[in-house]
Amino acid sequence: MGRTTWVLAVLVAALGAVALWVHSRDPLSPARARRPLDVDVEAVTGLEIEGPHGRIALRRGADGWTVEAPFRYKADLYKVAGLVAYLASVRTEQPLVRGETPPEALARAGLSSPDSARFTLVLGARTVCGVVGRPPRIGDQAFMAVEGRRGIVALAARAAAVLFEPPDAFRDPRALPLELPDLIAVALETEGRRIALEQRAPDHWVLVEPAHGPVLPAARERLWRALERLRAVRWLGAVPDPARLGLDPPRRRLHAVASLEEGTREETLWLGESTDGATVVARRAAMDAVFTVDREPVEALFALGPEELRDQVVVRIRPGALAAVEVQAPGRTAVAYAWDGAEWRRPDGTAVPDSEAEALGRLLGMLANYRLERFSEASPEDGAPGLRPPALVLRFRFHGRRGTETVAVGREAEGWIRLRRDEESIAAAIPADVAGPALEPFLR
Predict the structure, then answer these.
(1) What span, in angstroms and rounded, lies between the C-alpha atoms of 325 and 196?
(2) Per-residue pLDDT tens for 415-443?
(3) Cβ-Cβ contacts under 8 Å for 244 (sequence gap 6 or more)
(4) Residue ranges for the chain with pLDDT beneath 70
(5) What is the dihedral of CA 318, 319, 320, 325, to 10 degrees?
(6) Tens digits of residue pLDDT in 38-63
(7) Which of 167, 218, 285, 365 has the most CB atoms around its CB within 10 Å?
């Protein structure tokens, strides 16, 4: 290699080193301008906005985002998380202004106007600040400058417009910010009455207060529809006298528990008076913001009593859900039946005789279809008329459910046969002329 070639090689290497140094010193060089904020969205723990509506402070905790100022309330997760993700990852191929940003360029971009919005992303002890110009009425771009970095970059006007919204726009509009499929417990409390439901298996809910028993699926759907309609209508902020509105103490309470990946989460909604006949004032426990919700779903929720919620058949058997049945009379060996999808079989795999299978079918049909009547208190210790001891005990095992469901069947008393499901504090009855023929083959 000649001397000239060596000199050229050295010059190229030197120029390359200078270019790399300049590139590293310019925070908005084309490569780095693709992420002007250059932050990890997962590291963001807070967002503060100073705009036309004053200061709005949001914080991210274990259960999501919360509006901390001007009032404390659960934030709209999708709006806040979407805004933070956009700001943290916004990309631009080339800054509109490179190098030092002259004041006139800031003015043209609306970044020095009183109508601009300033934001601060909080990343633990570190903060990243920027200013965004108000998006134009016509057009699809707004402009942003990042503190400590040179240049002006373009943003989508629709995303930038979120920074100019009032505090109420950042609140979660749901009165109870939980997803219905995640719920595992719900309680409705009013003066002198508490109704509580719990999930025992997927799509299987039971009433645990004031009386035990499976929840009627149609009634649960009514409850869920009312919960879904509980949304904030108007924000009232902090009120000086919550007792005057029936919120201290609350007239009614709605408590819900959800199962999430990170564990369980509980939310309580306090419900007070109706000041206009169409809405009810409400407030979430541990939050200071008062708002109104439509009165209709509130009344629909609290109109559901134990009688409307409780399933009024002895056992609900869905096609393909029943796995096995066991029938036991006092002093006798239990007789077990297993359903293989086509016919009843003994535990050893032998087929059940047709006459016995037909009798079992009639018994199951009666239990699953006839509505119970004459409900009365009957604790497991005290029993009920005809249930001391029971004439027959039936045990049901279902696919996808843990354990078994037990039904105690009583003897005939005054033309009725009483039944009680396991863990229930009430018994009910079916007319003897309906239940007796179906039960008789198993009492012989």
Answers:
(1) 29
(2) 998 888 876 667 888 999 999 999 988 88
(3) none
(4) 1-35, 92-106, 108, 377-386, 423-425
(5) 60
(6) 788 889 999 999 998 999 999 998 87
(7) 167
Do 190 and 295 reside in the same domain of the chain? yes
Domain that holds residue 271: 180-309
Structure tokens at 42: 């997962």
Cα angle, residue 87 at apex, residues 92 and 71 outer, rounded to 5°: 160
Phi and psi for 393 in degrees, rounded to 5? -125, 125
Pairing of strands 183-190, 153-156: unpaired
Mean pLDDT rounded to a whole number for the chain: 82
Distances (CA, A) of 248 to 71, 245, 275: 19, 8, 16
Say whether both 32 and 140 belong to one domain.
Answer: yes
What the block records as the tokens of 367 is 């239990």
- Same domain assignment for residues 300 and 334: no
The answer to whether 391 and 440 have CB atoms below 8 angstroms apart is no
Distance CA 84, CA 124 (A): 15
Say if CB 196 and CB 212 are below 8 A apart: no
